[in-house]
Amino acid sequence: MAVLEIKDLHVAIEDKAILKGVNLTIKTGEIHAVMGPNGTGKSTLAAAIMGNPAFEVTQGEILLDGENVLEMEVDERARAGLFLAVQYPSEIPGVTNAEFMRAAINARRDEDDKMDVRTFIKKLDDKMALLNMPEEMAERYLNEGFSGGEKKRNEILQCLMIEPSFAILDEIDSGLDIDALKWVSNGVNAMRGDDFGSLIITHYQRLLNYIKPDVVHIMMDGRIVMTGDAELAKRLEAEGYKGISEELGLTYEEKA
Predict the structure, then answer these.
(1) CA angle 158, 171, 243 (to 5 degrees)
(2) E strand or H helix at 19, and its extent?
(3) What is the pLDDT of residue 12?
(4) Interacting residues of 252 by C-beta distance below 8 A, sequence separation 6+
């Protein structure tokens, strides 16, 4: 069992405090969901875990099996078992999907244990079928000309192929129609198990109808203010953030 611990995390961007003391522990075998209003720090949390240099950690710790993640470069974090599916994946002309994923897989392996081409192709075919992705997408340049739904599905394909210990999935449901949402959810659910944990950032209960979380956290004003089981997300859907904030004695202003 691997453990990702976030302790009293404070993060700023351009001297503006965004996270103001986040505490969170995720173990492999668990799916955690983080929900919260726009601008409350959900994506900042994802970026800080993976080491986006635009976000300054001013206080606190991020530990992966006791090791200080904050001392690692971005590529070191990935090799250690962290994965981030971003809201807006970058296009990389000249590098095919297949080339990118095989390089990413082998970057985590020893020199004498690289995945051979035959094994890679078989695995890639199986995972693409799971996500209902056409075979030709493997040879397209990474995200170039992909629709929004194709990019999100491709992020989950990468996660399935790389097999990280922890995946941070930042609004993977954003912009998806119902069919694409089901295929993406199929991919995430296929990864569930004792060797995989995930932090899913979402605004909507609809994703959690397909991927049932073990733990749900509500984030407001840069902090986690409430934690519960999957029923908490349903309650939030019914009451909205205003109802939660009133119960906790917090000030909440709706944003457009």
Answers:
(1) 155
(2) strand 16-27
(3) 96
(4) 37, 220, 241, 242, 244, 245, 246
| Contact yes or no for 165/81 (Cβ under 8 A) | yes
pTM comes to 0.92
Show the tokens assigned to 248: 């906790």
First vs last C-alpha separation in the chain: 41
Residue 255 has pLDDT above 80, yes or no: no
Kind of pairing between the strands at 166-170 and 82-85: parallel
pLDDT at 197: 98
One-letter amino acid for residue 198 of the chain: S
Q: How does DSSP assign 48-79, residue by residue?
A: HHHT-TTSEEEEEEEEETTEEGGGS-HHHHHH
Residue 253 neighbours by CB distance under 10 Å:
8
87 confidence band (pLDDT: 50, 70, 90): confident
- Residue 70 contacts residue 61 (beta carbons within 8 Å): yes
